[in-house]
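hey can u check if this looks right to u? its 158 residues, i copy pasted from the old doc so theres a chance i mangled smth
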Amino acid sequence: MKLTAKARYAVMAVTDIAVNGTNTAAVSLSDISVRQDISLSFLEQLFGKLRRAGIVDSVRGAQGGYILARPTHEIRIGAVIYAVDGSVQTKRCAEHEGMGCVDKGAKCLAHDLWQAMEDHIKAFFDAISIQDVIDQRFPAMMSESGAEVDFNVLEMAE
């Protein structure tokens, strides 16, 4: 499973605004581009979606750029990812479109495994705010067996 560049870069850019901007001082996309080594044209595409999703607000003028639309503790990583990329998908099927994993719309044998993983990923991203990223504070989650899963030691595939 791999997160898209859109998702990764959107989280990086929103976090950059949180660290380098204020409620009144906007951060320019060109500054984010330089600091985070992300193409300016790519950022422009992402920020249209982030603005429409209510995650950032644009500020016009000589000191223009973007500010966060809400406090950092209210902006969830999941909202940022879903704004630019839809959802994280681990299955090859699209049940909501009536498409199955295999021929004739049926589920593959591992379908429920991939669905459970998708659910955990969504819950993980929805539990973490931009402020948590800044503070490097990532919540542990409980496995179905009741054991605590420490996401700080897990690595996502690049």
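The longest strand covers residues 56-59.
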